[in-house]
Design brief:
Blueprint: E1 2-7, E2 10-15, H1 16-79, H2 82-93, H3 98-105, H4 109-126
Antiparallel strand pairs: 1-2
Length: 127
């Protein structure tokens, strides 16, 4: 006895045994697809969650350490003379060249370089 079923997007006429096999095949494939989706979504979730946790913890530690260093640096810079503070501001904040800074201070480019090196050593020692 023939039975009419939908298979691969079209209606076909097949024997009862073939129809049962094809319907079972469709159910098995659907079950496998559901199982695959569950496993893939769980796997993706665990991977994303793990990577986010490690990135967030790493980033949080980095942010805290960076802020602590910046606070220490601000305190140290506040103890420097006005000329030293101005030199740091012009070089690091305004990104002026040593030659430009030298013109403002009335000193040579080499003198600016030496002052910056001395300041670097001084600040490094205070940190």
């Amino acid at each position: 006895m023939d039975k009419s079923i939908f298979y691969d997007g079209r209606q076909v006429s097949v024997s009862k045994e073939v129809a049962e096999f094809l319907e079972g095949d469709i159910r098995r494939q659907a079950s496998q697809d559901r199982s695959d989706r569950r496993h893939l979504s769980k796997s993706e979730f665990e991977t994303v969650l793990h990577s986010q946790q490690s990135v967030n913890m790493h980033s949080l530690e980095d942010i805290v350490l960076k802020n602590l260093c910046l606070q220490s640096l601000q305190k140290i810079i506040a103890t420097l003379s006005e000329d030293e503070q101005r030199l740091i501001q012009l070089y690091f904040y305004h990104e002026m060249s040593m030659e430009e800074i030298g013109k403002q201070f009335g000193i040579s480019k080499m003198a600016v370089s030496k002052r910056l090196k001395k300041l670097y050593v001084k600040i490094r020692g205070l940190l």
